[in-house]
From TrEMBL, chain A:
<feature type="domain" description="Pyruvate/ketoisovalerate oxidoreductase catalytic">
    <location>
        <begin position="11"/>
        <end position="173"/>
    </location>
</feature>
<dbReference type="InterPro" id="IPR019752">
    <property type="entry name" value="Pyrv/ketoisovalerate_OxRed_cat"/>
</dbReference>
<protein>
    <submittedName>
        <fullName>2-oxoglutarate ferredoxin oxidoreductase subunit gamma</fullName>
    </submittedName>
</protein>
<dbReference type="InterPro" id="IPR052554">
    <property type="entry name" value="2-oxoglutarate_synth_KorC"/>
</dbReference>
<dbReference type="InterPro" id="IPR002869">
    <property type="entry name" value="Pyrv_flavodox_OxRed_cen"/>
</dbReference>
<keyword id="KW-0560">Oxidoreductase</keyword>
<dbReference type="GO" id="GO:0016903">
    <property type="term" value="F:oxidoreductase activity, acting on the aldehyde or oxo group of donors"/>
</dbReference>
<dbReference type="Pfam" id="PF01558">
    <property type="entry name" value="POR"/>
</dbReference>
TrEMBL record, chain B:
<feature type="domain" description="Pyruvate flavodoxin/ferredoxin oxidoreductase pyrimidine binding">
    <location>
        <begin position="15"/>
        <end position="211"/>
    </location>
</feature>
<dbReference type="InterPro" id="IPR002880">
    <property type="entry name" value="Pyrv_Fd/Flavodoxin_OxRdtase_N"/>
</dbReference>
<dbReference type="InterPro" id="IPR052368">
    <property type="entry name" value="2-oxoacid_oxidoreductase"/>
</dbReference>
<dbReference type="InterPro" id="IPR029061">
    <property type="entry name" value="THDP-binding"/>
</dbReference>
<dbReference type="GO" id="GO:0016491">
    <property type="term" value="F:oxidoreductase activity"/>
</dbReference>
<protein>
    <submittedName>
        <fullName>2-oxoglutarate ferredoxin oxidoreductase subunit alpha</fullName>
    </submittedName>
</protein>
<dbReference type="Pfam" id="PF01855">
    <property type="entry name" value="POR_N"/>
</dbReference>
<feature type="domain" description="Pyruvate:ferredoxin oxidoreductase core">
    <location>
        <begin position="256"/>
        <end position="352"/>
    </location>
</feature>
<dbReference type="InterPro" id="IPR009014">
    <property type="entry name" value="Transketo_C/PFOR_II"/>
</dbReference>
Amino acid sequence: MTEEMIIAGFGGQGVLSMGKIIAYSGIMEDKEVTWFPSYGPEMRGGTANVTVIVSDKRISSPVLHEYDTAIILNQQSLDKFEKAVKPGGTLLYDPNGIVNPPTRTDIRIFKVEGTRESVEMGNPKVFNMIILGGFLKVKPILKLDNVEKGLEKSLPERYHKLIPLNLEAIKRGQEIVETVKEV
Amino acid sequence: MGELRLMKGNEVLAEAVIRCGCDGYFGYPITPQSEIMEKLMERQPWTETGMVVLQAESEVAAINMVYGAAGTGKKVMTSSSSPGVSLMAEGISYIAGAELPCLIVNVQRGGPGLGTIQPSQADYFQSVKGGGHGDYKMLVLAPSSVQEMNDFVDLAFELAFKYRNPAMILTDGAIGQMMEKVELSDYKKRWTEEEVVEKNGSWATTGKPASRQRNVITSLELDSDKMEQNNLRFQAKYRRMEAEEQRYEAIQCDDAEYIFVAYGTSARVCQKAMEIARDKGLKVGLLRPITLFPFPKNIVKELAPKVKGFLSVEMNAGQMVEDIKQAVYETQIYRKVEFFGRMGGIIPSPGEVVDALEQKLIGEEK
């Protein structure tokens, strides 16, 4: 199993930390992982993205130009990365702020109303965990108890009391993910 | 060895420095390696091991602090990125000329000039051919994973002290910034004053006992005959490094007809390119130099008769390719040595590496 994914959105949406949680959860499952972020001025208020690879074997290139999965959280990232999904691959996006939805017909497309749902849950910070839940539903590459361990590892101890809320958000994401297109 | 962690290359390097018993770090911040000093400051090793961490007023000051501290026989280091390392070049030449051990880390970014902050390998020549003035060499190690950012710290210090010579870890923004699974080394104690005297007392300024002459640390020698003798001694040392320290990893080279030669981040890209090429039925191997000086030319010479050609893949305009050509030339056998690279902070894609292989090496045959 090798899952090559890109997560892309605005800085502040929790893109990099979602990637980190996936990577740490991968380690908890004894997998090889890499996490490669955009860095520097790119991240100051602009778009942020991170390439995460989870695999059973030694990972070759940490930098990729096509992906099994793209998790897309704003229009700029959709414009940039829709074309980079491998044929038959998966695109998952939050429709909030998306004016031109994805058009490809050779990939699976899913949407998660993460922004709306996080407001309903009363905590916009769990937005990225709702999206993560949607991803894990359509691509169950990690077990939920390992994700819990991954959360413990990647969050500083003072935030551990928020883990139940994060897990709830993940479960919510799993429930609300909608299929836009199957291939 | 302990638990597995997920850490950035830069942070791992800082952690490894503390754990290997380093005595002092002197540096000045620059992207994409600022996390090294940030991590060191956050860890406050002076409370734990007594290690000094000091932010100097400039790169020039930092390297001269390293020069001075290295003269006392302690394990000291600095880190920077390309433009900062250029500023240090004078000091590095002095350290090499005074034959002192130290570690210099260069997390490369795209140049020339201030350039970009994205990953690059354009400082290969600067690192392996000199960089500063005069005929000197550094031992240069090129990690290609976050794990090697841990492993090579101890190795670099070991080699630096073995040869009394500056050692460099030459990496780039990608490996500095990315996170991977890593197993950190166990703690080693810093040398005590007695151990420093015992190990390095023959040359370091550890305080003069009555039993020996003064240890003088300088690169200056106004008598040309003596200066030539010094140079001959340095050259003999560099030849000894070439004879004893060539390190590399050869992946699927046994049945290969074509060899990618790449180090650091581009080696990772080439590994992927190799998988793609093998799926297409092309017999491709990857030779990954681990030491860039000494360049692992013996393995190139060993492979040359068995293969049809080499493709050097670098994040620059073609630098290491010259060392591959030199090694192939020494075999007196003709083999094609081609180059593919991207510049300015662009990481080549595995697909374009395979295209380059087919166009530059294989295409010619058809």
